[in-house]
Amino acid sequence: MKKKKKLRTWGYSLLKPILGFLFKNYYRPIIINKNVIPKSGPIIICGNHMHVYDQCPIIISTKRVIHYMAKKEYFDGKLRWFFKITGCIPVNRSIKDENATNLAIEVLNNGGAIGLFPEGTRNKTNQFLLPFKFGAVSMAQKTNATIVPFGISGEYKRKEKLMVRFGQPFKIGNMDLESANKKLYNEIEKLMKENIAALKTK
């Protein structure tokens, strides 16, 4: 019988105060509606993906440990130690990685928090938002987890305009996955547009 992989999170608790302080001081992100993030229970926090640091403003928005799903290449590079001690879940994007999905579902069934980007990769195109994969809504349906949408807009430049806006959390309930994924897409798209409108007035 294969031994279950145990996620290590001691590095998350150790490094968050330090890296969080540096990130906030350097980028000065504007974070809106972070109070909507549930303080307990299974949640999946997901939004658009434009930069390698997109997980950072989300992490500093809540006291909860967020287990981010990250491509397995990160676990093979020089910073593999970082991803291993901060509770990240490696995902093989070349296949339907059931091991990663099962590990994320286990976290949710234990009342934990998962962070992922439904686009599946960073958006380096001219499209406003890439099509969403079904991982987030599928896991939410299987675990009765609450989905917390967010939108990130702006630039990762020193003290420039960077805004993160959280939307109203919701459960999949009786929705089919197609409808649930469309709802998630529309919510994140709306949050991004609200950010852009707000940033123009800053």
Characterization of this structure:
There is one protein chain. With 202 residues, this protein is of the alpha/beta class. The protein has a single domain, classed as 3-Layer(aba) Sandwich (Glycerol-3-phosphate (1)-acyltransferase), CATH 3.40.1130.10. It is built from six helices and seven strands. The protein has a seven-stranded mixed beta sheet with strand order 1-7-6-2-5-3-4.
**Share of residues in strands:** 15-25%
Per the principal axes of the C-alpha atoms, what is the gross shape?
Answer: globular
Poorly predicted spans: none
Number of helices: 6
Query: What is the top-level CATH class?
Result: Alpha Beta
Strand order of the largest sheet: 1-7-6-2-5-3-4
The number of strands is 7
- From the 3D structure, determine the CATH topology: Glycerol-3-phosphate (1)-acyltransferase
